[in-house]
Amino acid sequence: MDTTGKSDPYVEVQVGYEYKWSKVWKTKVKNNTLSPVWNEEFTIPVGDVYQARIRLKLKDKDIMSADDQMGGIEIPLKGLEKGAVHDKW
Q: Do residues 55 and 16 make contact, with C-beta atoms less than 8 angstroms apart?
């Protein structure tokens, strides 16, 4: 969080399992907000959908130091329907 009480959040996205994770995709940074909204899509190849999870890390972009992690979650993919939108936040 910045000295203004706001953040410059973005999300890192990966798919994988155990020690085999994909490259990192990143959303755009939303400057100076505590209520970011991202309407971005990524096409990410998935190997074994029964083992794979999607990993999301919410980070705060910092200019003078390393970016801070604000939160994160891993979601199993095996219960999700291919091509469907899952908006359950």
A: yes
Sign (positive or negative) of CA dihedral 72, 76, 80, 84: positive
Instruction: Write out the chain's pLDDT in tens, 89 residues.
Output: 566 678 999 999 999 988 888 889 999 999 999 999 999 988 888 888 888 999 999 999 998 899 999 999 998 988 887 777 777 65
User: What whole-number distance in Å separates Cα of residue 21 and Cα of residue 56?
Assistant: 12
DSSP state for residue 51 in the 8-state scheme: T
> pTM of the full predicted structure?
0.83
The two tokens of residue 9 are 């959040």
CA nearest 58: which of 74, 45, 46, 42? 74
- Cα gap 17→52, rounded to integer Å: 5
Q: In the 8-state DSSP scheme, what is residue 28? A: -
